[in-house]
Amino acid sequence: MGLKATLITGGSVMVIGGAMIVTGLSTGAKTTITWDNGPKIVKVHKINQKFNNKNFKKITIDGGSNSYVRVVRGSQWRVSGKYLDSKLNLNTTNDELKLALRESNNPIFGIEESSQTVVVTVPYKVNLDNLNLTTDGSGITTQDISAKNLTVRNDYGGVRLNQLTAQKIDMQGDSGNYRLQNVTADTLHVNSGDGYFKAHNLTLKQASQMQGDNQQIELHTIHVPGINVANQDSSIYAGGADQADNDYHTGDQSKALTINGANNDVTIK
């Protein structure tokens, strides 16, 4: 096929796809577009499922890629939101709620996965035993949640923890974005390369560790027994000054938050 024919064919596909989008919008259809040997319309479904007389102690969420999941407080157990054809799996047992979202194999126009947003509501006063979060490019936010153990696997996604209380927090993955606001835990363990970690008003009671190379770490108004930052070709700003080539130590080292890794950019204010 010559260049002219290729351009004409490509242009025709764009026109067809654009026409399908316009048609869907003009008719009020809850649809989006994928590519499967040509443009394909898929339906956007809604979910609003309540769980009465349940006492879940464990929540497991796999956000997949390019979805957005929120875990919040409310009056009763509920899973609500919207998702694409066959892209949501929801399973429950007596004590566990499991949610998994999957992206389409062939999204186009960069709009499809924004159609997948789900809210998991946890009743007030419920304290979870385990909260497990996994993302491979998706965003997950928690608000006012309490759990004994929080486990996060974050590859290329974003995890935001707000008003969270836990005994143990364990985070790992590559190129993840973490933001913590008003989080209190006994221990925190992070193993993440090429990531971004920012915390405001973080309280840790026992020895904790952040491990990984090429990270940007910002800690603002943290409450910890001590801090131990090893300088391995890193930039460290702490104690109101640039630490140059020096390590940074303060407080009780037996219970300190230890930060290890090469080529990190660490700011502690």
UniProtKB/TrEMBL annotation:
DUF4097 domain: residues covered: 57-213
Any matching Pfam family: DUF4097
InterPro entries: Toastrack_DUF4097
Protein name stated in the entry: DUF4097 domain-containing protein
Species whose genome carries this gene: Weissella paramesenteroides ATCC 33313
Taxonomic lineage of the native organism: Bacteria, Bacillati, Bacillota, Bacilli, Lactobacillales
